[in-house]
Amino acid sequence: MSAGTVLFNEGDRADAMYIIQQGAIDIAINKGAHVLATLEKGNSFGEQAVVGTKYRMATATAKSDAICLEIPADWLGRQINSAAPLLKNVFSALTLQLLQRNYIASVANSEESSGTFTIESGGASEYAWSTFERGSTLNSVYLPDGSAIQNHILSGRAIIVSSGKLELRRGSVKCSLGEGAVIGLAEVLAGVHLDDAVDVVSSINAWSIDGDAAYSVVSKLNKGLFGVVKGFVGRVLGDGKSLGRMAQAPS
Q1: Are 166 and 177 in contact (CB under 8 A)?
Q2: Dist CA 12 CA 104 (whole Å)
Q3: Global pTM?
Q4: Using CA atoms, how far apart are residues 27 and 21, in angstroms rounded to an integer?
Q5: How many helices (H) and strands (E) in the chain?
Q6: Which of 94, 141, 185, 216 keeps 20 to 30 A from 244, CA to CA?
Q7: In this structure, what DSSP letter does residue 63 have?
Q8: For the chain, which domains are there?
Q9: What is the pLDDT of residues 106-123, one digit of tens each?
């Protein structure tokens, strides 16, 4: 494809993911106005729309002439359904965490200092959230304050909030979060530090995902699916951040 070609737009329904074989692809939100990342050879994109939600969460545009390998959604779905049940929870929670990251980036891009992320009825977040809303088999935890959350993440466990309110601070942006908030999943999968500060507004009940258990499942995936999860984690952590143990596929 030639430079400037739009592969898909934010909000489009999805039927495939892509792996870049040549060239570079810009991933942007706000109808392409704010570029979140520029991906190059070997990076994957579009997978979150296939495995976590039916809708695209960003716009993908060829920054230069590019060649991409297209992987159909139905193949990905079969691979995930045949894996351990924890994998579906990981994909859905990573989708929510990436949506949060994109929202906070859009607030920062608008030069606002605060915002509120909510589960949007009929949107990508609702589709991903439905995995947990229907009743998850993950362990539940009660977290009364920010210190409890930080300690939970430091112990290698992420949370998906089922009730309560919290405030996440990333740089100069404060984001209010409630039901559906995901804190620390990409970080505990990669085994890296959580950079964001978290304060509890009202006591949190949440599901907990053990990072080591999740990584154990992910590390047993074939190279292609491991790359999909790695792409998710890298996008949540952001450009230039260490991927920790996710940096290379297990041998």
Answers
A1: yes
A2: 21
A3: 0.88
A4: 16
A5: 8, 13
A6: 141
A7: S
A8: 1-73 (2.60.120.10), 85-213 (2.60.120)
A9: 898 888 899 999 998 877
